[in-house]
Amino acid sequence: MIQHLAVVGATGAVGREVCTLLGRYSHRVKRVSLLASKRGAGTRIPVGETVVEVRELTGQSFKGVDFVICCAGGEVSRQFAPIAVGEGAVVIDNSSVFRMEADVPLVIPEINPGDARRHRGIVANPNCSTIIMNVAVWPLHQANPLTRIVVDTYQAASGAGASAMEELRVQTADVLEGRPARPRVFRHPIAFNLFSHDTPIGPDGYNTEERKMIDETRKIFHQPSLAVTATCVRVPVLRAHSEAIHLTFERPMSPDSVREILRKAPGVELVDDVRGGRFPMPVDATGRDPVLVGRIRQDASQPDSRGIALFACGDQLRKGAALNALQILECLLD
User: Fold this and answer.
1) Which pLDDT score, from 0 to 100, does residue 53 have?
2) Is 241 a residue of the active site?
3) Pick the catalytic residue: 128, 232, 313, 331?
4) What is the pLDDT of residues 34-54, one digit of tens each?
5) 3 state SS of 123
6) What domains sit in the chain, N to C, each tagged with a CATH number?
7) Three-state secondary structure call for residue 135
8) Catalytic residue among 71, 119, 241, 313
């Protein structure tokens, strides 16, 4: 039983999703505190069957707290996570600040739950696109080791938060009424458009989101030399990311064997109805826990049958963030 759990950034999109999912944990959490900026203080948010008032986040907020789920930005995590750890709490952090630090576990519970227990006060939640890809890929890697991953992402507005989702709604209405789409959250119009993920591009030509997928996958798999490449694109979808994934295995791999493995894989729902023409779609993944996987086929560019192509969709706010954080919490409790 957790005596006291705090959610930092409770008024944001991921924080609110954590609050929604906490209803499942009412039997394991005695007290929940919701924390946010001064602007969000006073907001009342449902947590299970109760409504909790948000309090302002300060350096004194963590006294007597056992666990913290931090859903605010990187600067908030950088400032307040060490304070919470100093008060004796364990922090599960959704930002990218601590992910690549050597002594901070980076955890997807379907893959490396044991890493969570080797924490020194902080456990990092991976990037949403990394989580969605690897829930689908890991069980295949266990059956037949991978030598290369090529992934192209189609990332929803939800990845940039509640304000970005609202921007998509507003811009869509504006364009349909003949008004120009005016970007405020995003750098470019998001309605009826797509663009390279709006994170800085490094000297190697990869943007920050692409580099996260590469580096985080290697860390989670404990394979620092695994060949991974990514192209990340923002699309006009409200919620749930999609990914086209091309895999190369050590040995030949058939589509039927892939389907059989994924049918039994934790956190995966196989959606591969060739006859009916139904495959993973964001509208089906939205608001649901599993990662949907389908469009499974032999990669025609690899004639030795070591290549498989597939398509995955997952709710970025749920399995890509809030749910994964709560599953990490379960790992720490169990």
Assistant:
1) 96
2) yes
3) 128
4) 999 999 999 999 998 899 999
5) strand
6) 5-125+321-333 (3.40.50.720), 130-316 (3.30.360.10)
7) helix
8) 241
